[in-house]
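To fix ideas, we quote verbatim a fold written out as tokens:
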Amino acid sequence: MMGTTETSRVKGRYRPFCCSVKGHVKLLRLGVTVTSMAFFIIAKAPEPYIVVTGFEVTVVSFFIILYVFRLDRLMNWLFWPLLDIINSLVTTLFMVIISVLALLPETTTLTILGGVFGLLTVVCCLADSALIYRKLLFNPGGPYQKKT
């Protein structure tokens, strides 16, 4: 009878989510969004800025918890990469709007910093979308894969 370590070697190497590139990008996205929200709160920016960034912090935290505890493997009735990429694209849209609105009028320095960190969130969302895109493909190896 095989032990746990032999079974895991046979199935392949398990890499924890926090040690993967996707995990680092998600954690960076969370950190930048929290920073943007903190600047908006301290600057007493309009409420939609705080609400959108707060909602994004909540959703990204949900996805991080989902992937860390591997709940996406337990709840396989949902196609999580599709939900994740839709979230990234919607977040990109909202954060571009919020960041541009924060940068346009004559505002305080802290609101401008919140807008700049919001634009950094957009960059992180696009990187996250690019990393998730491979899971959306039915043939992730690409059409030019050599056959043996």
